[in-house]
Amino acid sequence: MTDTPRTFGQQLGRRSWAEPWKIKMVEPLVMTERPDRERALREAGHNTFLLRSRDVYIDLLTDSGTSAMSDRQWAGMMLGDEAYAGSENFFHLEDAIQRYYGYRHLVPTHQGRGAEHLLSRTVIRPGQYVPGNMYFTTTRLHQEMAGGIFTDVIVDEAHDPTHPGDFKGNVDLAKLDALLARVGAAGIAYVSLAATVNMAGGQPVSMANVRALRAWCDRHGVKLYLDATRAVENAFFIQEREAGYADRPVAAILKEFCSYTDGAWMSAKKDSLVNIGGWVAVNDFPLFEELRNLVVVFEGLHTYGGLAGRDMEAMAIGIAESVQDAHMRSRIGQVRYLGSLLQQWGIPMMEPIGGHAIFLDARRFYPQLAQDAFPAQTLAAELYLDSGIRAMERGIVSAGRDPRTGDHHRPQLELTRLTIPRRVYTQAHMDVIAESVKAVYDARERVRGLRMTYEPKYLRFFQARFEAL
Ligand code: PLI
Asked: Rounded to two decimals, what is the model's pTM?
């Protein structure tokens, strides 16, 4: 008798899930040969950000602006009201933010860092501290450029890729207490809360934690602002893991989460299923007035903020699609499918598997490499050479330098991110990706690392160049 082939769901002892959509339009992929990839990587200075996309087979650089839009969103693009002022699409977007995120006043921006810029300039006084649950590259840079001093207050286990835990994105309130004792409430600009936490592997924050943070902020008269970039994914984890939320829709969980914060900024290029866009939204009217005034200087009038009317329409529709439970289940299910293949082969990664990506643990992947030989950058380069798959470094290169000392930040996490765009690739692509990672893992012993040959001043990971050691 032969074994009956088993589906992935059956192997896990449950029924399989499938994407809640079908494909209406396809974009051919480019298949490349190894000699071409060697040339392309050399020309790109071993930095996957500097590759041309025509040289890439499966693009896992980022989930930012890389989603596939729905037929509804594309139809919405045709309804762009491209008026300089008072575009109808702005009011649709404002309605979506109020309905799904619950904030009163909206200022659109061209993308997340435009919103970070406005908020940082408005609410940070030079010399103030900005505690946050792990840094994010552009967020911290805007906080620093506004004169703030970022301080990491995430729970310790977030820095350990092997530590289990349902909510490794949580803020450690004892760390906040210690900062408060040192600098006083007036020395703290606001608490900067990201949900999920990108640099920690897409790990979520619990509802209990944001509720406790709200109480802490009220006690000390400190504001709480949310990086809502992947807050819908965060809501999915709360539904799955936190007592009392299993029967509540993702949309309701998102709204409750946001209700504990004073405002938020957003890169809509992630959760909201659009290729461009962002916003900052607050409840406080005087702060809104300042943001609304400043957006005119840097982005555009307050009813478009650097976006076309059609972009705002696509975003408004994308927000409504993003909070659907079935969408989130398949979005995170696909990330987990890839992760579970790699786990079967014992490939080291950030665990538990987070929301938007698999983060390979380059320290354990290449134990022979010192952090100064850029293990995670090396792994991204090796993966590209093997199969044309493009990943991204999230380690010492991304962490940049301390502006006060000029030294490298040396993060404990040295990760290579396989970021999954939303609604773009199929399960078969996940199989191909997993097999390539396995091939690179099997060849790990011969790898020697990289040397940096060019280092730009800001956000160096985007444009730095390297040579093979
Ligand atoms: O890329 P922007 O400017 O739309 O957004 C900046 C930004 C803010 N917060 C968080 C948590 C992000 O992940 C983020 C951008 N992330 C990128 C580009 C990424 O590849 O993860």
From this structure: 0.96
